[in-house]
Amino acid sequence: MMMRATRSIFSLLVVLASGDALAQEGEGFLDGANVKLNATNFYYNRDYRSGVGVGKREEWAQGLLIDARSGYTRGTVGFGLDLLGLGVVKLDGIASENATGLLPYDQNGTRHAFGRVAPTVKLRFGPAEVKAGTFLTKDLLLKSNFSRLLPQTFEGQAAGAKFENSEIGYARYDRTWIRDGVDRTRLTITNKDRRFAGSPASGGFQMVTWTYKPSADWKLHYEAGELEDIYRQQVFNGAFSHPVGTGKLSAEVRYFVSDEAGRALAGTVDNRMLNALVSWEVGGQEFAAAYQGLSGDSAMPFVNGTDGNVFNWTLINDFMERDERSWQLRYQLDGKKIHAPGLKFLTRYIHADHAKPTIFDGEGRQWQRDIIISYAFQSEALRHLSVQWLNGFFRSNYQRDAEENRLMVTYEIPLWSGRSSQ
Q1: Taking the domains of the chain in order of start, what are their residue ranges?
Q2: How far is CA 83 from the centre of its chain?
Q3: What distance separates the 2 farthest-apart alpha carbons in the chain?
Q4: Distance of alpha carbon 67 from alpha carbon 55, whole angstroms
Q5: What is the pTM of this model?
Q6: pLDDT band for position 97 (50/70/90)?
Q7: Strand residues in 245-342 grouped as ranges (E)
Q8: Averaged over 295-319, what is the pLDDT?
Q9: What number does CATH give the domain 2-417?
């Protein structure tokens, strides 16, 4: 069924594009190009306060990311090329405390320096766009991990088309390069705390997406994906946002449905998750509450190395065990709206119970508190420089207690823009 849906949506993209192909022309390969540099100095420390094993993970490294994207050649069919350059250098850390995710490592240990270039070719035909190569994904069912120096990338093909108030897409990926990997690997299921029968390699992950905006206040979104011979998953998403007085009321609901697929190589996958968030923003301050509830015979599955795109995902934990229920209270501050431009602050508290982890005989209970503070310098001399501190405090009756600190100093600057150079 997934393959038939895949062929159907790809054919639809071509038909829709042909009807409007002459209405859009490329802005030019160089005229539409831009190059950005992101250099991040990252210190990471996680202290384990219970359990058996390494007591601390600590490393310090410098990362570099160059994102170069061309425009499209002029004409009915436009061609382009994107290049992603990624590099990292170790600054400090001992072998017994590595595996922080900052630096690539293998059976020989942590690499002291590592780099690679990831290309993507692209084609635009009317409102449709087709790409092949390397991707940074931000979908609800497949979100690249951006939490360390090198982002997780996927290799494959993708196609999409944008219209006035809707968007459709298709993607297939057969390899991934995880954030601390030294080579591309096959995709599989994340098997944290032995949630599933294993982590077998899959032939690939494919998905279709649809987004519709009926009005300025509403957004509807649907995704269906399948990790071949392991699991299939759907998510139904609705978001609402509307000004009320001097503030803004927002709400979003996500409902995930997951089942095993094909030969079910990872064993039983049977999960339903309701994810909801309500927030009130006024005067640069946001007050929010979220709920995450799971049901079914397994935990919620997600692809190895990725971030689960759920509201209660945190620095240390995901709160996605079988039958787990979790509640979140969150406060955010945007300094720009209180005459402190550049300052941002977030704190949240999540409490969970009713979990049924396979590694624990009893009710799993846990909680976490996070604090995130960042400041982007405003002076002309330092306007591309920012600093961020993240602190997490996690307690559980079946996982290792942990306290975590991350400190990042980032220099981000546009190096070149075709439009600005004219």
Answers
A1: 2-417
A2: 20
A3: 67
A4: 37
A5: 0.92
A6: confident
A7: 247-260, 270-282, 285-295, 325-334
A8: 96
A9: 2.40.160.10
